Amino acid sequence: MPFKKLHADIKEVLQNLEITTPTDFQKTSIPVIKSGTSVYCTAPKDEGKTTTLILTTMHKLKCEEVGNIPRALVLVENNDKALDLYQSFLKYTKQTSLRVYVANEKEHIDLLKSEIFEGVDILIATPQLIAKLLMTYGVNLSELKIFNIDDAEFLSQTNAYNAVLSITQSISKCQYVLYSEKRNPNLKRLESYFMEYANVISV
User: Fold this and answer.
1) Residue 60 is part of which domain span?
2) What span, in angstroms and rounded, lies between the C-alpha atoms of 11 and 14?
3) Which residues form the Helicase ATP-binding domain (predicted)?
4) Secondary structure of 60-114 in the HEC alphabet?
5) How many domains, in total, are found in the chain?
6) What is the Cα–Cα distance from 26 to 21, expressed in whole angstroms?
7) Are 131 and 107 in contact (CB under 8 A)?
């Protein structure tokens, strides 16, 4: 069972939340993501993609804070989704020392930069905001271990797609995991960039 091979702190959280049975998607995807390979994860709505993203990110970071710069990045379509995902993360991480931070587009960029500088393990934001932070030296991605994109269909938007490409150009080595309901042509095109040799999981 995928849940049984996750970090002990995660298993405790799942037990407290009374989550005992993985979905078919989670049974298939969690072991592959844990292996460290880059993955396209495609599954219908309500198959537990976002929960999988949270659990595998926590596992990758061993449920503990380390250093000051982000080791996990999660990109989402818009600010509302970033705020929602932040709340979802907190439900699972509040018993750990992991520091989850959402870069809120409604805040001034200088405030975001100073708060990120104080220390972040998991950073959630839109691609456009991360690209802006990189351009202004507001975030350091040199220690990134896992790069997630939730509901990645939004990369059909040119601005978001180009922002993702510019972000990945500044990353030397990282695991990439893209979650979507379908692997549309834009997502397939990423094989020419940072998703080369990526596994494909489809449920």
Assistant:
1) 2-202
2) 5
3) 30-187
4) HCCCCCCCCCCCEEEECCCHHHHHHHHHHHHHHHCCCCCCEEECCCCCCHHHHHH
5) 1
6) 9
7) no
Return the structure tokens found at 13.
């959280």
For residue 147, list its beta bridge partners. Answer: 73, 176
Distance CA 57, CA 78 (A): 20
Edge to edge, the sheet with strand 72-75 lists 100-102, 122-125, 72-75, 146-149, 175-180, 39-42, 199-202
Residue type, position 129, single letter: L
The count of other CB atoms within 10 Å of the CB of residue 202 is 12
Which whole-number Å values give the CA distances from 98 to 52, 104, 124, 140, 161, in the listed order?
17, 19, 13, 18, 29
CA distances, 165 to each of 42, 169, 179 (Å): 21, 6, 17
Residue 28 is part of a domain; what is its CATH number?
Answer: 3.40.50.300
Question: Phi/psi of residue 37, each to 5°?
Answer: -80, 160
